[in-house]
Amino acid sequence: MPKIVDHDQRREEIAQVACRVVARYGFERATVARIARAAGYTTGMVAHYYDTKQDIILAALRLMLRRIEQRLLHPRAAGGEDLLGVLSEMLPADPQRFMESAFWMAFWGQVPANPAVKRLNAWVHREYLRLYERCLAAHWPEWPQWPPAVRDRVRRSVITCINGLTAGAVTSPRDWPPRLQVEQLELQLELLRRWASTGARGSTRRQSRQRG
206: exposed, middle or buried (C-beta count within 10 Å: 0-12, 13-18, 19+)? Predict the structure, then answer.
């Protein structure tokens, strides 16, 4: 009997290998030929599933976003029932997440000079905002009571904190062990929650007067 090929699974496998190759070699050196070799396929086989390298990277981005959504909305880790436990899953604290974070770093490095990558990054950022919105709303009961401007600032600050911790841990892993990453994230969440609950109203009024 001829072997039945799961084409969707093969496409995802190539995208996953692309993540590893980009994380190891960087964006420019992650050629289609190198991705094909790492996956154990010919370049012709990869070309059967993806027309260009950008298509492969887009598939890899979508794969990473699905994993992010799974971690944020369906956490598996013990302690994942609270916000810190859930968001800690986003930190590069194990080999798999470190590799994924290195992939993001390589991707971000291409954003300023590449219009196509810049458009992809804008899409990724919108997806980030959507996922973190759902996560924060699910774990902070007071979230709906805050004004939209306050929620937006908190959400963006959380993303900025996690992105900063990711960059630090990938570039200087000895300086950012997992324990320290979680401690810094916990501090940021505490400060943001306190600000939004007690000080945001006055800050928002001052900004409105300044704009007026």
Answer: exposed
What span, in angstroms and rounded, lies between the C-alpha atoms of 23 and 65? 16
Residue 78 pLDDT more than 50?
A: no
Is 85 a member of any domain? Answer: yes
Q: Domain residues for 149?
A: 7-211
pLDDT above 90 covers what percent of the chain? 59
What's the CATH number where 84 sits? 1.10.357.10
Look up tokens 């805050």; give the residue: 146
153 domain residue, yes or no: yes
1 belongs to a structural domain: no
> How many independent structural domains does the chain possess?
1
Q: What's the pTM?
A: 0.80
Cβ 101 vs Cβ 166: under 8 Å:
yes
Residue 2 lies in a domain: no
| pLDDT tens digit sequence for 82-116 | 899 999 999 999 999 999 999 988 888 888 888 87
- Residue 148 predicted with pLDDT over 90: yes
